[in-house]
């Protein structure tokens, strides 16, 4: 996932502050909206939340359920305002705003509220003979005060979604929305203190300087969603404090389309997810590896699907979030054009036009770009889809495995044998067969990366686990005292008995 939210800049800092007065119902009012010394204000916010955590009130199941249900209400009662913010930040249409930010966040919160009592229960375990008599269990303990650094591409789901697990686990939570999605960040800062416990859940707005100041506080856990490069910086910032970190990053998620795939369905599904949010989705297909026997048919049908999905009322291109990202993506296409002129191999089969006046890029399909070129060396994170030709499944698997492990991997095939082979041989954060992106929208499966695409996982019970310390507890009686066999002085008889027991 490409992000800019940790690049240090001199920018206004805002923190949602509690107040007794009615005027403090929003997060960005009065003194909270004035420039303040970042480190001091961050320290005050962290101290306030730590003080709340120390009271123990966030540990009760009642508090957790109430906050989760309030989060659900926040999303449901403000659907119109959220949709408007997403349109302003990302040119998102109402349907995509609902399915990709609103509905999934509501579903996560609702599911956690239903299950949190069960998740909190002690997990009793059978003990080995040397531990008897005794009783052992896992106690799920909140970390304390945790930080969630959200992303700009799905600013509500990727900020409030992780908060579901953190709240369910009983933590106090600092939310740092991305400043790149400015309208969404402002709305989150306004709504959170209106619906949630202001002394336990705070919103801090600002740029990368603010993120760095927060991490420097030595919080109890940090979760970051964004690009691999920035993820490393977050990890480095947390290291001096030994703060545990969850990183949901990105990478180049491949799609393998086997010779036996249903090409009609594959083309439509690939086109759909590549158009969603302008291709600015961490689990969007970054490139396609198509069997040579079906490549031309696949490219033609992807182009046809793009044409059907983009009505005449749509602008010619998809809007990119800002100038920096537009320049990056248009630069990739310029490199492809230069390559095509040089060796005649790379070809823009669909789209390819860029309009700098409104930051729009046409949905684009590039056939056989240079595997070592910029388009294939960086996460694309935009409406450009390379399609590379492979002669066999062996070649496709080898190609994917020669690169850093992706956040997601996709396969289209009708063969069970092919499916099982790719599942076993291609490492990735997650895998989906015969569709794309749906693995992100369920609370019943963990979501996270591996290697360069991240560490840790969340959603549903896995989010609760990620934000909980699993404390081992063992209790033993004092009488009868069977431990006397291990007390010195050691006898031959005790040694023989110990060999049998241990």
Automatic annotation (TrEMBL):
<dbReference type="GO" id="GO:0004029">
    <property type="term" value="F:aldehyde dehydrogenase (NAD+) activity"/>
</dbReference>
<feature type="active site">
    <location>
        <position position="248"/>
    </location>
</feature>
<dbReference type="GO" id="GO:0006081">
    <property type="term" value="P:aldehyde metabolic process"/>
</dbReference>
<feature type="region of interest" description="Disordered">
    <location>
        <begin position="1"/>
        <end position="37"/>
    </location>
</feature>
<dbReference type="Pfam" id="PF00171">
    <property type="entry name" value="Aldedh"/>
</dbReference>
<comment type="similarity">
    <text>Belongs to the aldehyde dehydrogenase family.</text>
</comment>
<dbReference type="InterPro" id="IPR029510">
    <property type="entry name" value="Ald_DH_CS_GLU"/>
</dbReference>
<feature type="active site">
    <location>
        <position position="282"/>
    </location>
</feature>
<feature type="domain" description="Aldehyde dehydrogenase">
    <location>
        <begin position="36"/>
        <end position="473"/>
    </location>
</feature>
<dbReference type="InterPro" id="IPR016163">
    <property type="entry name" value="Ald_DH_C"/>
</dbReference>
<feature type="compositionally biased region" description="Low complexity">
    <location>
        <begin position="7"/>
        <end position="29"/>
    </location>
</feature>
<dbReference type="InterPro" id="IPR016161">
    <property type="entry name" value="Ald_DH/histidinol_DH"/>
</dbReference>
<dbReference type="InterPro" id="IPR015590">
    <property type="entry name" value="Aldehyde_DH_dom"/>
</dbReference>
<dbReference type="InterPro" id="IPR016162">
    <property type="entry name" value="Ald_DH_N"/>
</dbReference>
<keyword id="KW-0520">NAD</keyword>
<dbReference type="InterPro" id="IPR012394">
    <property type="entry name" value="Aldehyde_DH_NAD(P)"/>
</dbReference>
<dbReference type="GO" id="GO:0005737">
    <property type="term" value="C:cytoplasm"/>
</dbReference>
<dbReference type="InterPro" id="IPR016160">
    <property type="entry name" value="Ald_DH_CS_CYS"/>
</dbReference>
<protein>
    <recommendedName>
        <fullName>Aldehyde dehydrogenase</fullName>
    </recommendedName>
</protein>
<keyword id="KW-0560">Oxidoreductase</keyword>
